[in-house]
Write a structure and sequence with these properties.
The protein is α+β, with helices and mostly antiparallel strands. It contains five helices and eight strands; from the N terminus they run ββααβββαβαββα. Helix content is 33%, strand content 31%. It has an eight-stranded mixed β-sheet with strand order 1-2-3-4-5-6-8-7, with helices on both faces. A hairpin with a 5-residue loop joins strand 3 (65-71) and strand 4 (77-87). Helix 3 (109-124) packs antiparallel against helix 5 (180-195).
Length: 196
């Protein structure tokens, strides 16, 4: 296996291999802002968190996902993220299925989380590209992906069926290995400024 469970640590956030031990914190995180009510994304309701953890761990067992709990400085799980759609042969993966409790959104946690994942992908795993995908109308997510320095690859029209029966057009972005030095500098500068 090319991509394996790993712990990634930064100043304000850590990413730990996801386990059922995180279920209580994540149920509370899902309830913060009633995140499961957002129709254009897929966030588990508090009662569904254990089943979502099991689903992600089954995908890890199958080799297509490495799921993480996102931990704040106190060690509390405040969200989930994954390496997903892992292409071991081509050393390519997607960062996705990410969500955070409402109270930590726009706090700088996402930038540091993505930085840690990108750095590990490019420097630890020697990935050739990291992809990001989101609903074409999820403007908050698209702006966050663009702020990272990812470039648009295009729109996958009628890409998937959502839980409410609507059809999702998916916006696809990527960062390639040759982009990484510039993206790294772009992400490091505001994190250093934030710490100062």
């Amino acid at each position: 296996m090319w991509a394996k469970p790993v712990t990634l640590s930064g100043t304000h956030v850590s990413l730990a291999p996801l386990t059922q031990a995180h279920a209580g914190d994540l149920a509370e995180a899902s309830a913060d802002g009633n995140l499961s009510a957002l129709w254009y994304t897929t966030i588990p309701a508090p009662a569904d968190v254990p089943a979502e953890i099991d689903r992600r761990l089954a995908l890890q067992e199958a080799g297509s996902m490495v799921p993480f709990a996102i931990l704040d400085t106190s060690g509390r799980a405040v969200g989930m993220t994954t390496y997903m759609n892992i292409d071991h042969a081509n050393q390519r993966l997607e960062i996705g299925s990410t969500w955070y409790r409402k109270s930590v959104q726009r706090s700088g946690l996402n930038t540091q989380c993505k930085f840690l994942m990108l750095r590990h992908a490019f420097e630890g795993l020697d990935a050739i590209a990291v992809e990001f995908r989101t609903h074409v109308i999820n403007h908050q997510s698209r702006r966050a992906i663009e702020r990272l320095g990812a470039k648009p690859d295009g729109i996958l029209r009628a890409h998937m069926r959502m839980a409410n029966g609507t059809i999702r057009d998916t916006a696809v972005y990527s960062i390639t290995a040759s982009d990484w030095p510039t993206v790294q500098a772009h992400l490091t500068f505001p994190m250093q400024k934030h710490q100062g």
